Amino acid sequence: QVVLAASIVSKSGKVLVSRQFVDMSRIRIEGLLAAFPKLVGTGKQHTYIETENVRYVYQPMEALYLLLVTNKQSNILEDLTTLRLLSKLVPEYSYSLEEEDICQHAFELIFAFDEVISLGHKENVTIAQVKQYCEMESHEEKLHKLVMQSKINETKDVMKRKASEIDKSKIEKNRGDKGGFGPLQSMGSGKIENSFSDLSISSSGTGFGSGSGFGLSSDVDSFSTKSKGRPTSSATAPPKGLGMKLGKSQRTNQFLESLKAEGEVILEDVQPKLGVSQAAALPPSDPITLTVEEKLNVTLKQDGGISNFDVQGTLSLQILDKEDGHIQVQVQTGENQAILFKTHPNMNKELFANENILGLKDLNRPFPTGQAGGSEGVGLLRWRMQSNDESMVPLTINCWPSSSGNETYVSIEYEASSMFDLRNVVISVPLPALREAPSVRQIDGEWRYDSRNSFLEWSILLIDNSNRSGSMEFVVPQAESSAFFPISVRFTATDTFSDLKVTNIIPLKGGNPPKHSQRTQLITENYQVV
């Protein structure tokens, strides 16, 4: 058996990870992997393909293919055994079988492949052994890091001592230049000013005559003197042309105002308030956070009807403390029969199908903690819903352009379903190139014109039972009705189509259930009227 390469490719032919175990040029492996999607047929029971030179042994994994490229003389039974082992390893390192997650854990997958296959031949290892080999710590590496850290700390100490010595030498030099006996003339009513503070030492009005033999004391030596006639720190205004002038000039302000008028967003320099950025970076307060998120993709026709309606939802879990990882999650699904649920490959599918409980197949294995799987947590459950029923659309848009003389009157109306209360609704209408902003005659909400990108934004903060419908009317110079399409819409909601709720957290090691919180949101990913 000789395995030439182990790869993970998408069904469109995009190579995500590929590890070659024999000497092979990049052109050849790219050619072999590029030819694979063209050879895969539909409706076939077997999962191998033979060509004149190589054999492809593959296994579908959701939207991906796990692929072994071998020579034709290899034992296909051993190849299938190797493929099964690799298919069990991939979910161990990439919790969700998506392209982004596979690319993020590419090196961990390559290291795992190297433990399974050596020089094209399968090693006699198990999944537990592969994980142990990949996670094995090196005592020599720890010792090397400790030695390097001690050297860095020692270098920092030396640097501080040298900096202190340089500062002292500069002070001694200033004392030698300014602290000797000599004539000090014209010092009456002058000031010896401290460059490090606002303190000042002023002499009496009699002054010191020539040859008075006055020597600066050690307390005064540390201050730098300023010559007579130079403005002091209490001066009301600096001389013209000297120093730095803080703030923005009038010309700069005019330029920024012109950019704002064109629709550009100008970020002002604002001093951050204490605690604002820290509060935004704080982790979730509850030990366990479950997030229900649905993404809505809708394409409506401008003359009525719906051409695409797709909802994709995920339930993700985020655990802060490792001790809370041994749990199961009990959920309650809504009554929508059109939704198809799909659990993660590591979840116990029968447990979810019979009791609506999400738990790992291996009860001794805890859920990942911290930021494993990304900032949104670890995906437990997915679902999808597709429909052609227009009553399922949360927000419909009707646009009626009509020309009269040299002007075009555009009336837009929205109608919201009673299923959801929509928040932060923004309806973006493209416009033809205009010299000035359109004339808005009537609007329920607020509007903004972006002259650079040439579109009009209609914003409604909240759509609830008090404003399920609304309209806007504006006038522009004469234009074709197609110039006002496609209209894009974005909004959020705190309810979902699935109506999925987390009812209980079941600790597997006994004790009280840990405290948890649930976040639910519906967001638009691609919502258009074309």
UniProtKB/TrEMBL annotation:
Record bears the keyword Transport: yes
Entry's localization field: Cytoplasm; Cytoplasmic vesicle, COPI-coated vesicle membrane; Golgi apparatus membrane
Family annotation (InterPro entries): AP2_Mu_C_sf (IPR036168), AP_mu_sigma_su (IPR022775), Coatomer_dsu (IPR027059), Longin-like_dom_sf (IPR011012), MHD (IPR028565)
Endpoints of the signal sequence: none
Assigned GO CC terms: COPI vesicle coat; Golgi membrane
PROSITE patterns: MHD
Positions of the UniProt region annotated as Disordered: 158-189, 221-248
All copies of domain MHD, residue ranges: 285-530
GO terms of biological process kind: endoplasmic reticulum to Golgi vesicle-mediated transport; Golgi localization; protein transport; retrograde vesicle-mediated transport, Golgi to endoplasmic reticulum
Keyword tags: Cytoplasm, Cytoplasmic vesicle, ER-Golgi transport, Golgi apparatus, Membrane, Protein transport, Transport
Membrane topology value: Peripheral membrane protein
Biased composition (Basic and acidic residues): 158-178
Job description of the protein: The coatomer is a cytosolic protein complex that binds to dilysine motifs and reversibly associates with Golgi non-clathrin-coated vesicles, which further mediate biosynthetic protein transport from the ER, via the Golgi up to the trans Golgi network. Coatomer complex is required for budding from Golgi membranes, and is essential for the retrograde Golgi-to-ER transport of dilysine-tagged proteins.
Subunit: Oligomeric complex that consists of at least the alpha, beta, beta', gamma, delta, epsilon and zeta subunits.
Sequence similarity: Belongs to the adaptor complexes medium subunit family. Delta-COP subfamily.
Protein name: Coatomer subunit delta
Organism, as annotated: Cajanus cajan
